[in-house]
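4.2 Preliminary Data

To establish feasibility before requesting continued support, the project team ran the inverse folding procedure on a target of 262 residues. The structure was first converted into the token representation described in Section 3, and no sequence information of any kind was made available to the design step. The complete token record follows.
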């Protein structure tokens, strides 16, 4: 009984700390002040936006850009891997302060969060094996197609109703798991962010020294990426917009872009 009481008290203590952190950040936002530290949530397998390299270090386009902006704003930054399918919940609960990891702008996300101006263009493409007979989206009929759960790619395909023609529309927590199944021929194609698809294609083909994948000419439409904060936190988002504008004006944005998008 004593142990149960202690566990309950510990749980309440953790909850209170979380609430206090959230209230503190909300209070600063209300006062027009920036926090001294921001926690950025990300999928740490999403190359080239934010991922772990062979040394286990977090690297990528968004990592470099976020660090530059945080430095300009005199803020400390911490990157926190999260489950991508619960990203909005993590943001609204105060577990993280920002989502900055190739987040596509959608009407739903714009309603649920405070979003920055677009900072990068993207598309949802279809990638398949080089030996595949899939040449167009119509050829996906009767095929097993992979996608990341709660991604904009999944959302777009389902809104169009095209998944109904697939044999299966298989969701993955992370895209690297989908590529393992694609390579093993357990799935036939992946609907995926173009930036990630082209990066993985180049890296794997450079390593194997032969063609492995084909990205279809047809895609699921153009889109734009943004940074998201908790709804109402315009102070932080306005500061991030300013920081990204400064990165573009100084040439740092192009420098970071050329490093990751070749």
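Position-by-position output of the design step:
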């Amino acid at each position: 009984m004593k142990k149960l009481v202690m566990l309950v008290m510990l749980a309440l203590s953790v909850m209170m700390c979380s609430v206090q952190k959230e209230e503190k950040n909300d209070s600063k936002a209300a006062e027009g002040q920036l926090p001294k530290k921001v926690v950025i949530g990300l999928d740490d397998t999403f190359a080239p936006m934010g991922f772990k390299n062979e040394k286990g270090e977090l690297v990528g386009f968004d990592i470099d850009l976020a660090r530059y902006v945080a430095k300009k704003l005199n803020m400390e930054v911490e990157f926190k891997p999260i489950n991508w399918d619960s990203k909005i919940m993590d943001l609204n609960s105060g577990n993280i302060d920002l989502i900055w990891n190739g987040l596509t702008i959608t009407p739903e996300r714009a309603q649920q969060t405070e979003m920055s101006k677009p900072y990068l263009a993207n598309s949802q493409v279809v990638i398949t094996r080089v030996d595949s007979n899939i040449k167009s989206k119509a050829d996906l009929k009767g095929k097993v197609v992979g996608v990341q759960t709660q991604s904009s790619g999944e959302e777009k395909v389902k809104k169009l109703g095209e998944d109904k023609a697939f044999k299966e529309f298989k969701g993955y927590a992370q895209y690297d798991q989908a590529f393992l199944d694609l390579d093993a021929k357990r799935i036939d194609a992946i609907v995926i962010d173009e930036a990630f698809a082209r990066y993985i294609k180049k890296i794997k083909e450079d390593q194997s020294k032969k063609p492995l994948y084909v990205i279809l000419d047809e895609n699921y439409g153009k889109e734009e990426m943004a940074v998201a904060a908790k709804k109402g936190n315009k102070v932080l988002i306005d500061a991030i917009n300013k920081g990204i504008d400064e990165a573009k004006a100084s040439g740092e944005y192009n420098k970071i872009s050329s490093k990751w998008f070749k």
